[in-house]
Design a protein that fits this description.
- The protein contains 18 helices and 25 strands.
- With 608 residues, the chain is α/β, with parallel strands linked by helices.
- The protein has three domains: 164 residues, Formyl transferase, N-terminal domain (Rossmann fold); 93 residues, Methionyl-tRNA Fmet Formyltransferase, Chain A, domain 2, CATH 3.10.25.10; 286 residues, 2-enoyl-CoA Hydratase, Chain A, domain 1.
- Strands 2-1-3-4-6-7 form a six-stranded mixed β-sheet, with helices on both faces. A six-stranded mixed β-sheet has the order 17-18-19-20-22-25, sandwiched between helices.
Length: 608
């Protein structure tokens, strides 16, 4: 069928639905529901067979839903209604949740039900946004595909809703934190229900800020509301019974002004921040020993690890090293890149044969930090510093020849972050991941050695098509094209465990030593043909011209992105009807986590 997606923004769920519908044989176009756009005229122009709204914050005009079947994806179970469903679910700590696909009519969220799929409730230790991009998105995609299949059959009759509970929008007065009374768990739940949007409005150091993100801290105490310490750009603030880490702040601006960028909290506060101790992350402790044969414990049970936070961590298991990192929104500033490079070099000094990058459940990386760049005194200079720091990191990965490097993507990756993943010898993705390996939508040529790594995997023609098309790819299609070596079909919370088991198998396999030797020989051959430095020089020459040209579109596009300025019209590359992909992607194969043998779908050593 020809399916039109109507959405308030081309967000992560809309991108996933776009990619997966194409994978399932449908042609797809997108129209954004914008204040200045005539949605009725746009729908007439597209003449869709079906309309799907994966993320819509406004009502569908009657002229549209009365003339076309329009399926609304509501992130709540049948009967749940209202604009703050996920926020309330996090605040309430619900154990089970669901996603409903219903038909648009005159009453919001009250239409007939085409499909409904259950999913786990929010992880008590996780954020709303990670839950939305993980379990909720999985359920939404399953419900959309089922609803589309039922519609295509021409025989299915949707079920009317007999009852429902419409709840109003959660406003800032409902999200208030009382630092003199609220305990750590309540503060965390309030913060997590508001990340990444809209944040929790609060007064701090004489200013009004939106707080984004929250992580518990067990070891530090202070007067409730007091700032106690900093770590990796975050601030630690005392509660009545503990403390929380807050990674990001956003300055409050008057209505009608562009939104301020979300920034690392220390950077946002600047000179307002009093002198505080920088607390290093406590060292990783080994996992508790397994019980001895017969069920007896080999010794005293280790004390529980303290609850704290860091955006970079490292541990080892059975010959494999795991360098984890999780930066808010997947954005990597100059400082993030340099710190991660230091951690990477330290990990490479360890006696392991496999090094896994990432492995978390949310974003792998989305490239340079546009918010920090926009807030800089000289955005051009900060852009230049940031891209060079990214290049330094990618170059370190590409020139690692004494072990296999694996990028483990439990969440989405885009732009330079997607290309960072491709620098590894193998790329493993959870089946729900969406990749955007292109830069053009921000007016950039791109760097991170993409002119070396992308053609190496999919050929020059494939690289040119992907970067020009600038559309999202599902993990399945990325694997079929050769960008990804393995897809792991599992819930978001299980991906790290699956990646750990697979990496340990890879580290212990006899063929790994030969693969490392072949990798080293291939790198030397590639270097002899064309030095790696020449790719970087050519890419950065293009990037420098853009960064230091005040009239380059990049600057206006960056400001609009950071300021959440909505476009006047749907971008042409989205509004254009995109045909189904040629050839369905292979079904995700189950990934065994025990037993002998190299993991299936391991790439040819010559391509490492």
């Amino acid at each position: 069928m020809h399916v039109l997606l109507v959405a308030s923004a081309f967000n992560s769920l809309t991108q996933r639905v776009h990619a997966e519908l194409r994978d399932h044989g449908h042609s797809v176009a997108v129209e954004l529901a914008l204040p200045a756009a005539d949605l009725v005229a746009s729908v007439r122009r597209h003449r869709p067979e079906l309309i799907v709204a994966p993320m819509l914050t406004s009502a569908v005009p009657e002229e549209v839903w009365s003339a076309h079947t329009c399926l609304i994806v509501h992130p709540g179970p049948v009967g749940d209604r209202g604009p703050s469903s996920l926020d309330r679910a996090v605040l309430d700590g619900v154990p089970r949740w669901g996603v409903t696909v219903l038909q648009a009519n005159a009453e919001m969220d009250a239409g007939d039900v085409w499909a409904s799929v259950e999913c786990p409730g929010p992880d008590p230790g996780g954020s709303k946004s990670a839950w939305y991009r993980g379990e909720v998105a999985d359920a939404a995609l399953e419900a959309v595909l089922l609803a589309v299949e039922r519609f295509a059959s021409g025989t299915y009759v949707p079920e009317p809703q007999t009852e429902g509970l419409a709840r109003p929008l959660l406003r800032q007065e409902h999200r208030r934190i009382d630092w003199l009374r609220d305990g750590t768990e309540r503060v965390l739940r309030t913060l997590r229900a508001a990340d990444s949007r809209p944040g929790v409005r609060d007064e701090l150091l004489g200013g009004t800020w939106y707080l984004h993100g929250g992580h518990p801290e067990d070891r530090m105490r202070g007067r409730p509301g007091e700032l106690l310490a900093t770590r990796a750009g975050a601030i630690c603030r005392a509660t009545v019974d503990g403390a929380v880490w807050i990674p990001e702040l956003r300055a409050h601006r008057a209505p009608g002004e562009p939104a301020a960028p979300k920034l690392p909290a220390v950077l946002a506060l600047g000179e307002l921040l009093p002198e505080l101790p920088e607390r290093p992350h406590p060292p990783e402790r080994p996992e508790p020993a397994a019980p001895a044969e017969g069920g007896r414990s080999p010794g005293p049970r280790p004390r529980p690890r303290p609850r704290t936070w860091s955006d970079i961590g490292y541990h080892e298991e059975r010959g494999a090293g795991f360098l984890s990192f999780s930066f808010p929104g997947g954005a990597m500033s100059t400082t993030h890149c340099r710190r991660l490079l230091d951690a990477y070099r330290a990990a490479c000094a360890r006696p392991t044969s496999v090094l896994v990058l990432g492995g978390g459940r949310d974003f792998f990386s989305n490239g340079i930090h546009l918010g920090v760049i926009e807030a800089a005194a000289d955005p051009a200079e900060e852009s230049w510093a940031n891209i060079n720091a990214m290049d330094d990191l990618v170059e370190a990965v590409l020139t690692t020849t004494d072990r296999l490097v694996v990028s483990a993507l439990g969440g989405n990756a885009a732009a330079g972050g997607a290309v960072l993943a491709l620098a590894a010898d193998e790329v493993w993705c959870r089946s729900g991941v969406v990749l955007n390996p292109h830069y053009g939508l921000m007016g950039l040529y791109g760097s991170e050695f993409w002119t070396y790594t992308l053609p190496r995997r999919i050929g020059p023609a494939g690289a040119e098509l992907l970067t020009a098309e600038a559309l999202p790819l599902s993990a399945g299609t990325a694997r079929r094209l050769g960008l990804v070596d393995r897809t792991v079909d599992c819930p978001p919370g299980e991906f790290a465990h699956r990646a750990s088991a697979l990496a340990a198998r890879l580290a212990g396999h006899p063929a790994t030593t030969a693969r490392i030797a072949a990798k080293k020989a291939r790198r030397e051959l590639d270097e002899a043909r064309r030095p790696l430095a020449s790719y970087r020089t050519a890419e950065l020459e293009r990037m420098r011209q853009t960064f230091f040209d005040p009239q380059a579109p990049y600057h206006a596009l960056r400001r609009a992105f950071v300021g959440k300025v909505r476009p006047d019209a749907t971008p042409p590359h989205l509004a254009r009807a995109v045909p189904a992909r040629h050839g369905a992607p292979p079904a995700a194969r189950p990934v065994p986590v025990t037993g002998p043998g190299v993991p299936d779908a391991a790439p040819d050593p010559g391509r490492c």
